[in-house]
Amino acid sequence: MVKIPTYTAETTPTEQVSSVKSNIAVSPSSSLAATLLPAAKDVEKYFIQEKIISNKVEGGKLLADANQELYEAQQKANLKSTPQEGMNFFNNRYNEVISKYKSKGSNNYIQRYFELNMNSNRPSYTNNILKTTRANMVKTRVAQVDLKVQNKIIAGTIDRNNFDFETLSQSVLRDYRELVDEGIIGEPDFEIAKRGLPQEIEIGLIRNIAKTNAAEAIVILSDRNQLTNIADSEKRKLVTEFGALLKIQEDVIKNANSSFQLDAMKRIVQKFQTTDTIGIQPEELENFKNGDIEFDNQVDELNNKIINKKFSTDTNYDTNTDIISKIYDGTITNLTDKFLLANETEPKSIIQRSGEGSINLNDVKYLSTVFTRSNNEQFKQEDQVFFKFVNDLQPLLQGNSFINFFDKQYNSKASTLRQTLYKRYVDGLFKGETPENLTTPSNENYIAKDITSYLPKTADLDKIVIDMAGGEILPNGFPVRENGEDANTYLARLETFNEDEADFNLITEENPGIVKLWSRYYQTDESFMKETNAIKNLSLEKNIPEIAKKAIDTAATIFEGDGGFTKETLKSYLTDIGQIETKYETKIQRGITVERTKFGARSYWQIEVTTAKDLLENSEPLFGEKFEKQFGNYRGNFKTAREGLLNLSDKELTLIIEKDDALGASFAAAIIVSRFE
User: Looking at residue 521, what DSSP letter applies?
Assistant: First the structure.
């Protein structure tokens, strides 16, 4: 049989065909081979094109997904206050996205194709961000100056019969001139602002009037001979605005939260504080009443306290702190609203609490001002800056960490300081200062420049130590003050004292070692000062709310037997720990934070959200059947309540611990059975 010659193709077939290779040379451009060559090249071209399209399809999907994420990143970057902040945020996110999707490319061609296309799109993103953030920066700066100007006008026109128009105008124009110098506005804009300033000042004047008497403001606006710098169109707008304000003021009056009530209370307090009065005569007292039965009756009761010499001038800093918190969260709306504080069974108002040992007359006057400002959203936000600032200053008043436990003047000093600084703060705001400037030590208008005058003095220190070392406060075994030993030396010796030498058996008969256990395993820092304060708290009478008692019993039942602890032991420990941590007076870590962005300890047992989540994650065996039965409502979409609670946000879990006493007690019990010896 004749051997048929074979042809070696220039393309690569998909699979090899078994054949015999001839030694005869055949030209690919002639004979039968010549007719097959075009078809082979078409096949090769087809497969190459197919591969290109396939790569582009895969690369296109990567591009689409990546650009979606970058678009979202751009939108977030556009919200930043400055171009630098915006670009820093976007660049970080850009690198993350590029790295993420480039690595998904199945070959080098796709990865290169993806990277080149993304790089070509990057300028459009950055240009958009720069343009938007620059606009944000300018807008923010203009808003800052506008707010400063508004505050100056408000402050400068408080006294409508006696304000200096020229001085106020020059001060405002200097603020606008800063915008010109910074290149934000031009001279034409400055001239427009200058021409409109008389109108703005008169508007500020009438707004000040409207704050307390919208009806009077409307009458003034209706008189064409008054406020002639305000255009008629603006007057119509203001009349509409004040009409709505008038309705609010009328509602406030109906709810006994009128400015008259607050003003009347301030005048009553001022009268009480005169040195030559032991109360107000009934006929004179009628001048302070407004016909509101509740208000009038409470004022009568307050007056009788003073007349009968049953009015205490003592104050309690923490009580006032809790009341301020309730004012700002809307729980208390006026001076006559009755409310409950922790561990109370009978609700009382601010006026009714006056003179009972926690609120004095200065506190009443101060709280009246707080009420006034709490009704304005802007003022409310400004005050949050102040209260955080004051809370941060509080440790300075305590001096030596040992002293504040025993300093009988601490509450008075702390309250006086807060009230003094608050007045300075509000006055500063009315003068156009920002909250930040007023609370920054390096600023010339810092409100606490004289803070040292409020700090414990040597003389005060000596007196405190004398009282403290008298034998009634310190438990047996603590060192006494030696003859000739000054206060600072004595306190320093206490700081280094080996507390194990003290007689902790006197703490409680039921749990002689609870303070040491609490200090070592619950607080985990074994602070001598904290242990001393714990001793002090345990020596006080326990006033445990019924709901707390039930929570303790529930928690002790759930964890009975765990770690070898009996139910009765757990109940005893939980009872004492609640007394040490809060004295059952609050469920919230001390401090004013209306918007709780930082989640402090919650419940009578002061459980940190980080501690709760650590227990849920790492101590799973503790949260068994009894726990699930009690707290199954927190399961949500998860198999167990433990998993449901663990997957909540910090804020959600914090609020639940605060509201659910049984859960708070259970976390405390879990700490005991897992850590205590």
Answer: I
